[in-house]
Amino acid sequence: xKRFSHLLLAFVLVLAAFSWSFSQTPIQKxxxxxxxxxxxxxxxxxxxxxxxxxxYYELIENQINLAAQTKYYRDIKVxxxxxxxxxxxxxxxxxxxxxxxLQLHELKIxxxxxxxxxxxxxxFNLLASETExxxxxxxxxxxxxxxxxxxxxxxxxxxxxxxxxxxxxxxxKFFDTYYLQGYEPTGLVHLNYIVPNGRKLQFKSFNGAPEVxxxxxxxxxxxxxxxxxxxxxxxxxYSPAWYSPLKYIxxxxxxxxxxxxxxxxxxxxxxxxxxxxxxxxxxxxxxxESNGQPYNYLKKACDFVQNEIRYMGIEMGEYSHRANVPExxxxxxYGDCKDKSMLLAxxxxxxxxxxxxVLANTYKDRGLQEELPSPYAFNHMVVEVNIGGRYQYIDPTxxxxxxxxxxxxxxxxxxxxxxxxxxxxxxVPQHIVGNIKVKxxxxxxxxxxxxxxxxxxxxxxxxxxxxxxxxxSAKNDIQKQYLEYYAKTYPKINKIGHIQxxxxxxxxxxxxxxxxxxxxxxxxxxxxxKKYISLxxxxxNDKLPEIMEDRxxxxxxxxxxxIEYEIGVVNKGKNTFGSHKDNSYFDRNAYVxxxxxxxxxxxxxxxxxxxxxxxxxxxxxxxxxYTDFADRENIFFNGFYLDAxxxxxxxxTNLGKPTSAKEINWFTLILFIVLVPVxxxxxxxxxxxxxxxxxxxxxxxxxxxxxxxxxxxxxxLFINILxxxxxxxxxxxxxxxxxxxxxxxxxxxxPILYKILLLSEIIGNVLILAGLIYSCILLIxxxxxxxxxxxxxxxxxxxxxxxxxxxxYFMFKSYLDKIDGPLVHYKDTIKAIFxxxxxxxxxxxxxxxxxxxxxxYQNDDSIQRAATTxxxxxxxxxxxxxxxxxxxxxxxxxxxxxNKIDPAHPEDH
Length: 909
Hints:
Helices cover about 30% and strands about 25% of the residues. It is an alpha+beta fold. Keywords: Membrane, Signal, Transmembrane, Transmembrane helix.
């Protein structure tokens, strides 16, 4: 601790001394450079409704002279609102004094057409900028800062300066990325690169940016853009870090990625360890403890660099990209990604383990290969290891990683450039090596009291994250945060004991258990004395960004993520539920989601699963994502009624609002009670006495018993009667008030049309059920009207199911599409049509039925029995084997005009 204090004090003194010495050097105030290209276009005035900060840029000018190593910048800001005055009360410039100088050329206010020159009297203060301090990076950057006075509405602020000098670490090669537009309009953008003859600077435009224009200067060339555009680009939240809809250009003197690789090898060669150093002694001891086993050695070396060398970088000057020597990093026990990677690679190579340095980009995991090669394509350094031909990436900046060294998590950085490669970009495999399992059990104990048990298990990289979180946070603070999380749902909640944290670092598994006591559980329903509890799928809902339907930008996801979340309710000592299970599941290109609701006699379980295949949802899949998660209240809100004793009843909420499943819609029940007797009366009094009029049986009986395919038809009738009865009385719940009140919660669905649909379904299903039962009775009694009755019932069922399916699909299209799609929705319609086509055709054409079902209402015994088997009975007719000659003779005799057979009376022949 004392050593760290001394180091920190020394570092502060160095910074202070540096700041003091630099403050003694006055900032230069000079005229603008003579090599500037004149502007040829006039700025336009943008639409002020597109401006948010009360000011806009009339001009943004940036000109870079490669030979002079100078970047010239000039802008004109127009204040059109009071808020603009507040936002533009100062001007500032950030630069690196290690290799750059600042020259100020112009600072003035244009007011009412007159110039007010502020530069001669302006006193700029130098402040330590440290733009990367939040990342524990000290880069020594400075800010020249000046506070403007007496600003007024409609003033124009003109500011111009030059920064001279480039970082020598880049070996005098130039590269740049420049955005030609922002998220607010600009009057005019002028960008110019002055490239001397003999230097080749390649350019590339992105997102519709115009191609570069050229203008020869004799010994140099202007490569420039002059743009006036008043169109705005909307910024959308949750966009991936790599995504930008803005027009931009890139230029670079690095021709290939191999050039960048060679540059990295030159500035960051992996050195030999000084033989007599303490680092060499440490490495030898590490190798001895590993028994000379490469993977044991790799694990020990990796653990040391990740956990014992803290992350902090002093990246002043060329050390922005050059690593410090390993002995220094080992001694001071801190370093940035370059330092830690260099130290780990050096330790490994000292024992002949092949290791290389890898350039990576922590935010641009897509599209890197489309950019121009340059060192600025990367912002991170890691290590690649080759042991026995097995290659593996390791990030030395990640701490507290557990498990087998071969399976350690490595982030999905996209494309990387490794010194073990051939100078080409390589892909980083996207492996989901960890997951989270959460189980919340709410046990109701009566009197509106309950206990909540929570068990969360983290695996892989998720265990790494939780291990770091618990090691870096006070246990009491963690307990408080967890308690506050559940207090949002259960206000009267208190912890029972302390959070239990179990860490199995060898298997990289972290288990956290919590226990709470809840009193006065439940919320009162509006306008009612009923109370209900809410089970919220917040753990899953929070991981899924909410978007608008018209979103354009791809959607960033918290990749990698694999979570299973289970919520359970247990009625202690009571069995009040039936059995029910409901599932929804979809697997898309970027994610997989599932929800299961399972009700058992004494408990209710809601289980969610969520996994991400990709770090983002592409534009073409945005509509599907919106549809999948548009109805979040229905997906993630689950409510259940409590009875007078504080136990859950079987009243399950519908679409976010509780409704008791025991409440009956008396209108539909009375309608059913009235409709059934009416149908029975009609059948008994009217139709049952009628005679067949379009499918007529034969005049004589050919079969006394039901046989052949008629037996199969009878079984099919029984099955359909039982199935339809179950759907009608149980699954569909036509008599449940819950079903009828759902119309009030369905967005975009007319409650009147919804109730008309339900009424028509009740009437239609009653008619079908009655028709099937009556057909079954007719078949058993072998009535003459069976064939036409069953044919009409099957036809009605096919027509009704088709109309009902089409109507319900278009009424609930937005809901059905996200669950199962139209094809699955129409499966009942397809079944009804097939049922009619198969069995309707059979009864219409079957001679077996026409020769069996002949009994009339009066059971007329005068029907004559046929003397022979009906020749057209297709169910049992078999060919009679005869010789060819006999066959020919018989056929001739049969077909003679005098020997025609009456099909209805074969005995007359």
